[in-house]
């Protein structure tokens, strides 16, 4: 029978979120019911609340989560009741042209649960990134559940579901950072610091964190930045060149989503270097670059979708590295909060006071 649970709902653009009772159906074919244990407060959730992603209110917020599978629907073989899982928002189809070419991280037909969660009056909810995990339970496609080592704390594991994976993957999967490389990361919030940690994990020897906030630059050092630059204090590109023998970095990662910052990343790379955009721009933004510079500098300009990750490959690996003490996943958690504290967490995030608040359910 359907489940009545508490959840965080955004009813209208810019309106404070509310905690309400919602209805979660039993899982149908290909679906899984997950009891959420913890869910990170990601900037994407704030984008939903502010209307920056769409206007399909009311939204059921939360997506950076881990928990226990309670029930599965007909035909589900990937997971079973009792499994500890991280939720992901790109359940690959296995049939599209990207999947058939052996590139499932680019899957063009990712899917979510078919059934809808609703308010108690029957109003259909739009789950954030197809998950909706600021709730005691949520309904997802079974492919959105990735089984990992249950010894990992849910408060830490869930962060791989979005921001941390996006950053790590931008460095390792999209940017191809490897041993001996030089890397600059523009924007040292959660995604940027994850990119720094990923670059360190891959063996980069020069890792430069760039931000306007000295507090965030201190965080960057904790994740492996060998140098930091406050971008308000002079020519960022010139300072990066000074730190790299006058050449620029092998990989420049833009984790802000602003045209001006992307332009800095473009010019801060070495010849034949790579620029990776993982920061999310707004729809109205435009970028202008000299076409001859795009040609003449060579290299690659890439966008990183979810860190070009394959959850079944990358989540267990990163959890294993965390358990071995080789990946500082726990450092991303600034505070643990309750479900009633999400609105306050948005304020702290906006003010740059936290790296990640994590809702414990």
Please give a quick description of this structure.
The protein is an alpha/beta fold and 361 residues long. The protein folds into two domains: 3-161 and 328-360, Medium-chain alcohol dehydrogenases, catalytic domain (Quinone Oxidoreductase, Chain A, domain 1, Alpha-Beta Complex), CATH 3.90.180; 167-305, 3-Layer(aba) Sandwich (Rossmann fold), CATH 3.40.50.720. It has helices spanning 43-50, 97-100, 154-157, 163-174, 190-202, 214-222, 236-242, 259-268, 291-296, 311-323, 342-350, and strands at 3-10, 18-24, 31-40, 59-60, 64-72, 84-87, 118-119, 126-127, 137-141, 145-147, 182-186, 206-211, 227-230, 249-254, 269-277, 300-303, 335-337, 357-360.
What do these coordinates show?
Residues 13-361 form the Enoyl reductase (ER) domain. One of its GO terms (cellular component) is cytosol. Its cofactor is Zn(2+). This is Oxidoreductase. This protein is of the alpha/beta class. It folds into 2 domains: 3-161 and 328-360, Medium-chain alcohol dehydrogenases, catalytic domain (Quinone Oxidoreductase, Chain A, domain 1, Alpha-Beta Complex), CATH 3.90.180.10; 167-305, NAD(P)-binding Rossmann-like Domain (Rossmann fold), CATH 3.40.50. It has 11 helices and 18 strands. The strands form 3 sheets. Strands 3, 5, 6, 9, 10, 17 and 18 form a 7-stranded mixed β-sheet that branches. The chain has a 6-stranded parallel β-sheet with strand order 13-12-11-14-15-16, sandwiched between helices. The chain has a 5-stranded mixed β-sheet with strand order 7-2-1-4-8, with no helix packed on it. The mean pLDDT is 96.
């Amino acid at each position: 029978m359907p489940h009545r649970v508490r959840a965080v709902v955004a009813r209208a653009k810019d309106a404070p979120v509310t905690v309400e009772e919602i209805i979660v159906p039993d899982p149908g074919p290909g679906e899984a019911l997950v009891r959420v244990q913890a869910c990170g407060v990601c900037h994407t959730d704030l984008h939903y609340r502010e209307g920056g992603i769409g206007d399909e209110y009311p939204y059921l917020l939360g997506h950076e989560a881990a928990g226990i599978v309670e029930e599965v629907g007909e035909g589900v073989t990937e997971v079973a009741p009792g499994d500890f899982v991280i939720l992901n928002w790109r359940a690959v189809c296995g049939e599209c042209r990207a999947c058939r070419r052996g590139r499932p991280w680019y899957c063009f037909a990712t899917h979510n649960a078919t059934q809808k969660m609703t308010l108690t009056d029957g109003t259909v909810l739009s789950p954030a990134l197809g998950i909706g995990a600021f709730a005691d339970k949520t309904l997802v496609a079974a492919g959105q559940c990735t089984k990992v080592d249950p010894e990992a704390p849910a408060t830490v594991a869930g962060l791989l579901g979005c921001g941390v994976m996006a950053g790590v993957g931008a460095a390792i999967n999209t940017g191809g950072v490897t041993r001996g490389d030089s890397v600059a990361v523009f924007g040292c919030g959660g995604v940027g610091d994850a990119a720094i940690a990923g670059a360190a994990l891959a063996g980069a020897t020069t890792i430069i964190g760039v931000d306007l906030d000295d507090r965030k630059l201190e965080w960057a050092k904790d994740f492996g930045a060998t140098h930091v630059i406050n971008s308000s204090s002079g020519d960022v590109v010139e300072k990066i060149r000074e730190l790299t023998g006058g050449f620029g970095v092998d990989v420049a990662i833009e984790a802000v989503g602003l045209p001006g910052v992307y332009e800095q990343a473009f010019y801060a790379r070495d010849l034949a270097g790579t620029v990776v955009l993982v920061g999310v721009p707004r729809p109205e933004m435009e970028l202008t670059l000299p076409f001859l510079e795009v040609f003449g500098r060579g290299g690659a300009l890439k966008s990183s979708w979810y860190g070009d990750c394959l959850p079944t490959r990358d989540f267990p690996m990163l959890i294993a590295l965390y358990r071995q003490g080789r990946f500082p996943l726990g450092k991303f958690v600034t505070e643990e909060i309750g479900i009633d504290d999400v609105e306050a967490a948005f304020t702290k995030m906006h003010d740059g006071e936290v790296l990640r608040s994590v809702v414990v359910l």
